Amino acid sequence: MKSFKSGVIVGIIGSALVAAASAVGYRQTVVKPAQKAEAHHDEVSKQAIRRSIAAHQSRF
């Protein structure tokens, strides 16, 4: 019985570690690049709006 209990405990801990590792991997490969792309898009959009306004304003 002692072997069974230790096996169950090791299995539960192992499963929790695998789930945590897959969550971190998903975050690194999917979530962070999407956030980075969105931030870059926002920055480029702001620059484009500024340039557009500056190009169409009168000099006088």
TrEMBL record:
Pfam families: DUF3042. InterPro entries: DUF3042. Residues 1-20 form the signal peptide. Keywords: Signal. It comes from the Bacteria. This is DUF3042 family protein. The lineage of its organism: Bacteria, Bacillati, Bacillota, Bacilli, Lactobacillales.
